[in-house]
Automatic annotation (TrEMBL):
<feature type="domain" description="DRBM">
    <location>
        <begin position="8"/>
        <end position="74"/>
    </location>
</feature>
<dbReference type="InterPro" id="IPR014720">
    <property type="entry name" value="dsRBD_dom"/>
</dbReference>
<dbReference type="Pfam" id="PF00035">
    <property type="entry name" value="dsrm"/>
</dbReference>
<protein>
    <recommendedName>
        <fullName>DRBM domain-containing protein</fullName>
    </recommendedName>
</protein>
Amino acid sequence: MASPSAHWKTRLHNRVKGYGWAQPVADFTPFGQPNNCMWLCIVRINGEEFGRGDAPTKAAAGEIAAQRACAELDRRGYP
C-alpha cells in the first residue's frame, strides 16, 4: 500500500519515460496573501495539461499535481 508521501513526481517521470515521451513540465505559481501563501502547480506532458494541485508548499503542490496527472493517464487508458 502506498504511503501518503508516495513520491508521485518520481512515479510520473518513470511512467512517462516508459512511454518514450518528453518528461513532464511542472509550472508553479504562488497565490494568496504574502503571510499565507499557497502554491499552484500545473503538470503538462507534451504541452498538454494532465494535472494540477495547490498546497501551502511547492513540494506538496507538485506531488498533488503529479498524482492527479497519473490518475489522468489511468483515465485515458495508459498502462
